[in-house]
Structure formats: structure tokens, C-alpha cells
Design brief:
Layout lengths: L25 E2 L1 E2 L19 E4 L6 E6 L3 H19 L3 H16 L3 H12 L6 H20 L11 E3 L10 E8 L2 E5 L7 H13 L2 E5 L6 H13 L8 E4 L3 H8 L4 E7 L2 H13 L4 E4 L5 E4 L5 H10 L14 E5 L3 H13 L19 H16 L3 E5 L3 E4 L2 E4 L2 E5 L5 H4 L6 E7 L2 H9 L3 E2 L1 E5 L3 H10 L4 E4 L14 E2 L2 E2 L12 E8 L18
Parallel strand pairs: 1-4, 7-8, 7-10, 8-9, 10-11, 12-13, 12-20, 13-18, 17-18, 20-21
Antiparallel strand pairs: 2-9, 3-4, 5-6, 6-24, 11-23, 14-17, 15-16, 19-22
């Protein structure tokens, strides 16, 4: 069955909306000193002001205007000062604030944030608590707890001794992980709070300041998170966590700004290229978590019910808008017909409707532009003789929303565009395979390398297959599971760098080597006064 509904559903409308006007553009950034209801004068309003639209109804939730470049410059200067103050704070105190931040998200603001995600992005309201808000809180608390841990880790013991037989006897060398300064995160609309937390958590934990540039399709959830952080930190760090609204022009300006020291993006491969080019001009590091066209291998020895569950959750959850979705399903010939017949029935049982309906499985596509993109992929696939439509294929606009029917194609060739190209919607391709070595080669033939899945009763074989797949994440008899302690990221055109886990802390720091010939001058194990020293 499709993933079950959570124990309770968030209510709407979210109180944040009462503080936003849908008539006048509001200032596009938040720092703890600029409030959400500080509206720009008409004379200062950006001609390119953009609305936040409820995908289920087409109604305007609020209108945003990008701040001027002068405003951004002034705010970045404030962020530099906030960084100095924050990074000098003992790491355990930073951790306590991060943990409180996550706890407020999980408890006091859970209902409001879940409602806001559903309203702003069109994710069914029955999915936003368990699969957006709770994971967001978990990753913030994870990095907060790491910073307060009694066990050594890169936060509590950022400086380690470099041992070498080549050192002179009087020399003492250490390596320190050091915060970068003011950092930038560019996040997508499909997971607007979890993607943000995956960047903000480790960046703040190590001592950086953070700027968030959300997608214009999901401007609201990040603003609420910024308000919650201000509450968690008692408003003591204005300029530390900033949200700036806008399009590619704002992103490019920030990428080229000398104060921004590192950028992490979750988005399309095209957007990743733009970030890489912008960062390269100033020789700044970047982390790229980009698109995917992930395969799922279904062997004929599998538990068929499990295989169907994995396929459904790996393709139709979150309106099918997940970068790691297993949109290429390779089914072994011995069970192909049985699998396809059962899959068709399950897909046709999915309910399409408003995100506000607690019984909805597939909500509206986030925007008309994205709707046209998904519809274009489906229309092209229908004209391709290499594909046979199993179910779905419909797309329509109603009551202000744009909807795409959950769609399954049976494909005779890996050369079909619907098999090769990322659709980012509720569309899956199913293909037949006969030989294991052949299907592994077919899986690896993609330009992407984000995720992959295997469904089989033979776990040793599954782990062997996993070692041969060219991707950053492999799930066995499951799909798309993520916890804060694990790393996540891709290879090839799916990007580079990792988010999650202890290792991701290094993505937000640089290593500083210190050579000393006064061995007794300090003790590397004494971290009472200095955490991530600069």
C-alpha cells in the first residue's frame, strides 16, 4: 500500500500568513532586525516582484520583492559581524541553541510549518508533518547534540595532532577545522525546510553565518524558520541567519560577492552548473546536490508486495517531486507481467486532489511552469514508439491548480527520452531485464548518479550489486530513507560533496595547519576556551 497517513494532520491557515500582505511587495530578507511586515514603499518595489502562489487554488499568498543590492551589501556586513560573535561562542552553547531551534520546530511550530509547506508547495497535508517538519527538526537537533557531545568529534575536538616520524623532536604540528565565514545555501521547492536545515545545521554548528536563497516557488517556509531561530537564540545574533528572496540575478550577485565564502545548492543540474561557474570566478568552494534518474532493480526472487511498496514510495510520494526517485524500474523477466499488472492497479488507486484534502495522495504540481515541463515529457513519451502507456498520462488545470495524473510507461529501450531525462513529477518508466550483469550496466549508463535501489531476498547479492552501482546512495528493499547521521549526495551529473552526518561538517570548514616548536605552550586536548579557532 501507499505510505500510511500520519497520526495527525496540520491545520490551516498558518499564522505567518496573517503577517504577510498579498497586496504590497514585502522586503525579501530577514535577519532578526528586519521584520516580515516591513513593507517596501511602492517607489522601492522591485519591478520583478513575484507572488507566492497556493498551487491547489492558484490564489496569491503573498508578493515578494527582491531587496536592492545596497540592502544586500549592508546585510552582508552585518552577517560578518554576526559571524565573529557566533564563532567565538563556545561550541556547546552553539549546540544548545541549535537543539532548541530543532525542538521549537518539532513542537511549538510543527503545525504551522507543516501547513505552510502544504500551502506554498502543494504537498498533500497528510505528508508534511512526518516527511518534512519532523526530519527538519531532527537534523537541527542532531548537529546541536553533536556540538554538546562528551565524545570527541570534529565539533568538540576540532584540532588534532599531526604525527610524523619526519618531524624534528622539538616540533608540534596540529590541524584545525576552521569555519569559513559567511556561507550561502540555495534550496529547491520540493523540500524547502529539510534542504535548508541540511545546510544551515552544519554551517552554524561549526561557527559560520548562513544566507538562505529559497526557490521563488517556496518563499514562505524559510521565513518562518528564520523567525523560529530568532526565538531560539533570543534575538542575540542579528544577521547570522538570513533569508533573501529572488531569482537567478540575486543568486549570481551573492555567488560573486567577496563576503560569501562557500555555496551549497540542492537543485537541477543546470542550476548547479551556474553555481559552479559563479563560485569558480572567485575560487570559492561549492557543494552540489543535483538531479537524478535513479534505477531500481527488482529481481524475480523478491517479495512482490515489498517491491510494489518500494516502487510506489520511490516514485509517487511528495507528488513525485524527489530528486532521488527511482524513476527507472528494471524488473526481471520472470515476474514482469505480474509486477506490471499489480503496479497498474495500485497507481490507479491513488487519489489526486487538493493538497488541503487529508485523503489526497497526489497534489498539484508546484507551478504552471513545472506543470508544462512534466506535461511536455509525457506528451513526448506518448509519441515515442518505444514506449507503451500502462496507466495515467493525463494532465489538466482545475480550480486554479495544475495536476498531472500518476503515470507509468512500459519502455522497450533505454534510449527513450522518458527513460534518460529527469521529469521531476509523478512519472515512472518500467523496463524488462534478463541478465544481472546487463541490467547493472544499463543502470550505470545514465549521466546521473544520485541513487539506486535493489529489491531481492538475497542480501549478500544485493550488497554486491550495490558496490557495482555508480551512485552516491543505494537502498536495499527500501527507498529514499534518510536519517541525519548518514551522508547524502551524488556523482557524475548529480553533483559532488555530501550533506548529513559528521563528515558533512568538513564541507563548511577549511583545514588550518599550525607548526609550533614550543611544544609545551599549549595542549591540543584543552578545548575550554577555543572552538574552531580562526
Amino acid at each position: 500500500m501507499f505510505r500510511s497517513l500520519p497520526s495527525f494532520l496540520p491545520s490551516a491557515p498558518a499564522p505567518l500568513l496573517s503577517r504577510l500582505s498579498s497586496c504590497k511587495p514585502i522586503c525579501g530578507y530577514f535577519s532578526g532586525t528586519v521584520r516580515l511586515n516591513d513593507h517596501l514603499d511602492d517607489a522601492d518595489a522591485d519591478a520583478d516582484a513575484f507572488p507566492s502562489i497556493n498551487p491547489s487554488t492558484g490564489s496569491t499568498l503573498s508578493v515578494f520583492s527582491s531587496p536592492s543590492l545596497e540592502m544586500i551589501d549592508a546585510q552582508l556586513s552585518l552577517s560578518s559581524a554576526a559571524y565573529e560573535k557566533w564563532s567565538s561562542l563556545p561550541v556547546a552553547k552553539r549546540g544548545a541553541i541549535l537543539h532548541r531551534f530543532g525542538s521549537l520546530v518539532e513542537t511549538k511550530y510543527c503545525d504551522e510549518l507543516a501547513s505552510l509547506i502544504s500551502l506554498d508547495v502543494g504537498i498533500p497535508v497528510n505528508q508534511t508533518v512526518d516527511n518534512h517538519v519532523i526530519p527538519t527538526a531532527a537534523i537541527l537537533k542532531y548537529y546541536g547534540d553533536l556540538a554538546q557531545s562528551s565524545l570527541p568529534n570534529p565539533l568538540t575536538k576540532p584540532e588534532v595532532e599531526v604525527a610524523s616520524p619526519h618531524l624534528p623532536s622539538e616540533a608540534f604540528v596540529t590541524s584545525r577545522l576552521t569555519p569559513l565565514g559567511v556561507t550561502l545555501g540555495i534550496t529547491p521547492w520540493n523540500y524547502p525546510t529539510y534542504s535548508l536545515a541540511s545546510k544551515l545545521g552544519p554551517s552554524l554548528a561549526v561557527g559560520n553565518a548562513y544566507w538562505e536563497k529559497p526557490s521563488p516557488c517556496s518563499p514562505l517556509p524559510s521565513l518562518l524558520l528564520a523567525e523560529i531561530f530568532t526565538e531560539a537564540s533570543d534575538g542575540d545574533f542579528p544577521g547570522l541567519f538570513n533569508v533573501v528572496q529572488g531569482g537567478e540575478d540575486i543568486a549570481q550577485y551573492l555567488l560573486g560577492h567577496p563576503i560569501i565564502m562557500k555555496t551549497s545548492i540542492t537543485g537541477s543540474t543546470r542550476a548547479g552548473r551556474a553555481v559552479l561557474e559563479g563560485s569558480a570566478k572567485n575560487v570559492k568552494p561549492a557543494t552540489l546536490e543535483l538531479g537524478g534518474k535513479s534505477p531500481l532493480i527488482v529481481r524475480d526472487d523478491c517479495d512482490l508486495e515489498r517491491a510494489l511498496e518500494v516502487t510506489m514510495n520511490g516514485n509517487f510520494f511528495n507528488n513525485g517531486q524527489v530528486c532521488s526517485n527511482c524513476t527507472r524500474v528494471y524488473v526481471e523477466a520472470g515476474i514482469f507481467e505480474e509486477f506490471v499488472g499489480a503496479l497498474k492497479q495500485r497507481v490507479e488507486n491513488l487519489k489526486i486532489g487538493s493538497a488541503a484534502d487529508s485523503n489526497t495522495n497526489i497534489g498539484p504540481i508546484v507551478s504552471e511552469k513545472q506543470y508544462e515541463s512534466v506535461k511536455g515529457h509525457i506528451d513526448a513519451a506518448l509519441k515515442d514508439s518505444k514506449n507503451t502507456l500502462l496507466t495515467g498520462g493525463g494532465a489538466w488545470k482545475r480550480e486554479g491548480g495544475c495536476y498531472v495524473e500518476p503515470t507509468v510507461f512500459l519502455c522497450d529501450s533505454d534510449d527513450s527520452d522518458i527513460v534518460r531525462e529527469e521529469v521531476f513529477g509523478p512519472v515512472v518508466s518500467v523496463l524488462r531485464f534478463h541478465e544481472l550483469d546487463d541490467v547493472i550496466n544499463r543502470c550505470n549508463a545514465s549521466i546521473y548518479g544520485l541513487g539506486a535501489g535493489i529489491v531481492t531476498r538475497d542480501l549478500p547479492l544485493a550488497r554486491s550489486i550495490a558496490s557495482r552501482l555508480h551512485c552516491g546512495n543505494v537502498w536495499i528493499n527500501s527507498y529514499n530513507g534518510v536519517v541525519p547521521e548518514m551522508m547524502f549526495g551524488g556523482v557524475k551529473m548529480s553533483g559532488f560533496g555530501r550533506e548529513g552526518g559528521i563528515e558533512s561538517l568538513k564541507e563548511w570548514t577549511y583545514s588550518k595547519t599550525v607548526w609550533s616548536e614550543e611544544h609545551k605552550a599549549f595542549n591540543v586536548d584543552n578545548n575550554e576556551d577555543s572552538y574552531f579557532p580562526r
